[in-house]
Design brief:
7-stranded mixed beta sheet, 4-stranded antiparallel beta sheet, globular
C-alpha cells in the first residue's frame, strides 16, 4: 500500500513520472516538471508495487479504527451492524464496506487504486481498457449495446440472447435483427450462431438499405457452446461493424491450452465477463473489456455513468481486483486441476447406462464446448431434468448450476474437489439403476413440436422499446394467441426469453412455457406466475 504522504516512480515506456498524492490520485509531470495532468483511463502499463492495489487500499482505509467517522453507510464500519447478519457473516465485511473515500478512488473517474486495478486487469485479459462493473454482466451488456446503437439502429443478435440484451434495446431504442440459433431437439438446447448466419443477416439489412450498428454474440452459451468468433469478428470488421460478445460464462477462457480462446483473443471489440461465475470474485461483480478503435470509449464511460450505481460496493470492486490477482499468479496452470477433474468426471459419467453427455458432436458447426461445463441428459431414464435435479439434491446433496427440461448442467471451477465429483458420479449411477425406463418411456416424453426452438416462428410487431412503453391490458392465456406480447417471459435460469415484448404470441411458444412450467421450471417475468393470463399490448 502506498504511504499517504505520496510516492513517485518513473515509467520509461511513457516517459512520464507517476506521482501518487495524499488522496491516492494520480498526476503526471513531464521530465521538466512543467505540466501537471490528470490521467484517468490511461492505457499505460499498470504500476509496479502492490499486486492488489484496490484490496490494499481498502485494507489500509479500514485499519483506521480510531477514526471519528461521520459518513455513510449507516452501520458505521460495523458499529451498528444488524446482529442477525453479523451472526451469519461476522463483523469484518462491515469494516470494509466503505464509501468513496479519497484514498479509495472514484469508480467514474478513477485515478488511484481503482485505475491501477483496472490496468492490471486489462493487461491480464488482453484488452486496451477494462472497466469494473458492480451491476453484473447485465450492466456491461446494456452499456455495450447503448454505446454502439442509437435509436432506430439495427442490432444483429441471436434470439436466445440473455434478457439484458432485450432491456438494452429498450434503453437504447435499437431494433433487433434476430438470428435463430442452432437447436438440438433431443436435448432441448439452443447453441450459438455461425458466421454464415451473421453474414446473411448483414446482407438482408443491406438489401433494405440498412446497416447493422453492431453484432452481438453469446459465446460461450450457458451450456458452454462456443461460436467461431474469429471468423465472425473478421466478417464484422470487413463491414466496419463492432462485435460485442456476451462472454459472461467465459472469463476463464484462454488461460489453458485445453480451454477455448477468449473473445478478445479472437478479435471481439467489446467483451463482457461475469468474473464471479467461473473466476472467484463476489457475485454481481463483472468486467467490461474493449479492444480496437471501432467503439467510442468516451461513450462507454457515459453509459456506465448512466447505468452503474453512484454508491458502488467496494467489497465487490476489491473482489474483482483479488480475482484478477489470483489468476495472475499462475495463469497457465491455475485451471489444470479443475480440467483434470472435469475430464475424469465426464469419462466416468459417459459409462453410466441411460445417461447422455453433451459433446461437440451434437453441435458440430461450432468449434468447441467449454470442458468445465458438464451437461448431462436424463431423458432415457424417463425423467425430466427438473425431476432428476430434485432427486440428486434431496438424496445426495448435489446442487447443479442449470436445470432444463431434459438435462442438468454442472459448473466445474477452481473450488471443485474430487470428493464432490465422485459424489455426483455416485448419484448419477444410482439414478440410472433406479430409473431405467421400460421400452417406449423415452418416446412418451418427447414433445412432438420440439424439432424447433419455441421462438422459431416468432414475429416482431413492435420494437422492444415501443412495446415497453405501450399501453397494456390483461387477457386470459387462451385469448393471448395472436396478441402482441407485453411482458418478457422466460424460464430462469438460463434467462433466455421465450416471449419478448413486441412479438406476436404464438401457440408454439405458449405450449412450450406451459410444458416447462408443468415439468417444474420457474417462469420469470410473467406477471401471472400461474400463466393463466398474460399482459399484452393494447394497440
Amino acid at each position: 500500500m502506498r504511504e499517504r504522504g505520496g510516492t513517485s516512480k518513473h515509467d520509461k515506456r511513457s516517459n512520464i513520472n507517476i506521482n501518487i498524492g495524499k488522496s491516492g490520485r494520480v498526476v503526471t509531470m513531464d521530465d521538466d516538471d512543467d505540466v501537471v495532468l490528470r490521467i484517468p483511463n490511461s492505457r499505460i502499463a499498470p504500476p509496479e508495487g502492490s499486486h492488489t492495489p484496490l484490496v490494499s487500499a481498502l485494507k489500509a482505509s479500514a485499519a483506521q479504527d480510531d477514526a471519528a467517522t461521520f459518513h455513510f453507510p449507516g452501520h458505521n464500519r460495523g458499529r451498528a451492524a444488524p446482529s442477525s447478519l453479523t451472526q451469519l457473516i461476522g463483523i469484518r465485511p462491515f469494516l470494509h464496506d466503505l464509501p468513496e473515500l479519497p484514498e479509495l478512488d472514484n469508480l467514474f473517474a478513477p485515478e488511484g487504486p481503482i485505475l491501477d486495478a483496472q490496468l492490471h486487469a486489462a493487461k491480464l485479459f488482453g484488452s486496451s481498457e477494462t472497466w469494473f462493473l458492480v451491476g453484473g454482466s447485465t450492466c456491461g451488456i446494456q452499456t455495450a449495446i447503448m454505446a454502439t446503437c442509437s435509436p432506430g439502429d439495427f442490432l444483429i443478435l441471436p434470439r436466445n440472447s440473455h434478457i439484458s440484451a432485450i432491456s438494452a434495446m429498450v434503453l437504447s431504442g435499437a431494433l433487433p435483427k434476430y438470428i435463430v440459433p442452432d437447436y438440438d431437439s433431443s436435448w432441448d438446447i439452443t447453441g450459438g450462431i455461425t458466421p454464415s448466419q451473421v453474414e446473411c443477416a448483414i446482407k438482408e439489412l443491406e438489401k433494405d438499405g440498412r446497416k447493422a450498428a453492431a453484432v452481438f454474440v453469446t459465446s460461450p452459451t450457458y451450456h458452454g457452446i462456443c461460436s467461431n468468433l474469429s471468423e465472425i469478428s473478421r466478417l464484422c470488421h470487413s463491414y466496419k461493424t463492432p462485435l460485442i460478445v456476451d462472454e459472461a460464462h467465459g472469463a476463464h477462457l484462454g488461460f489453458h491450452p485445453l480451454l477455448p480462446a477468449s473473445a478478445l483473443q479472437q478479435g471481439a471489440d467489446l467483451a463482457v465477463q461475469s468474473t464471479h461465475k467461473v473466476l472467484c470474485s463476489l457475485t454481481q461483480s463483472s468486467m467490461l473489456h474493449i479492444s480496437g478503435s471501432l467503439v467510442d470509449r468516451e461513450r462507454i464511460c457515459r453509459c456506465l455513468q448512466t447505468l452503474q450505481s453512484t454508491s458502488p460496493s467496494y467489497l465487490l470492486l476489491a473482489s474483482l481486483d483479488a480475482a484478477r490477482a489470483q489468476i495472475s499468479e499462475n495463469p497457465e496452470k491455475i485451471f489444470s486441476r479443475a480440467l483434470e477433474l472435469a475430464v475424469e468426471v465426464t469419462d466416468l459419467i459417459k459409462e453410466i447406462p441411460g445417461i447422455s453427455v453433451l459433446e461437440r458432436q451434437r453441435f458440430s458447426s461450432f468449434p468447441a464446448i467449454d470442458p468445465l461445463r458438464l451437461t448431462i441428459g436424463v431423458w432415457q431414464l424417463g425423467l425430466s431434468g427438473y425431476e432428476a435435479d430434485e432427486i440428486l439434491y434431496r438424496d445426495y446433496g448435489v446442487v447443479s448450476e442449470l436445470v432444463d427440461t431434459r438435462s442438468m448442467t454442472f459448473a466445474i471451477n477452481l473450488g471443485t474437489c474430487r470428493e464432490h465429483t465422485l459424489r455426483l458420479v455416485s448419484g448419477i449411477k444410482d439414478l440410472s439403476a433406479t430409473y431405467i425406463p421400460t421400452q417406449g418411456a423415452e418416446e412418451e416424453r418427447v414433445d412432438n413440436n420440439s424439432s424447433h426452438p419455441p421462438f422459431v416462428d416468432s414475429k416482431m410487431w413492435l420494437s422492444p422499446r415501443e412495446a415497453f412503453f405501450a399501453r397494456k391490458k390483461r387477457v386470459s392465456i387462451k385469448d393471448s394467441i395472436g396478441e402482441i406480447c407485453g411482458e418478457l417471459i422466460c424460464p430462469y435460469p438460463p434467462g433466455i426469453p421465450v416471449m419478448i415484448p413486441g412479438e406476436i404470441v404464438t401457440q408454439r411458444a405458449l405450449d412450450y412455457l406451459l410444458h416447462v412450467k408443468m415439468e417444474g421450471a420457474v417462469i420469470s417475468g410473467a406477471s401471472d406466475p400461474l400463466l393463466s393470463s398474460m399482459i399484452v399490448c393494447n394497440v
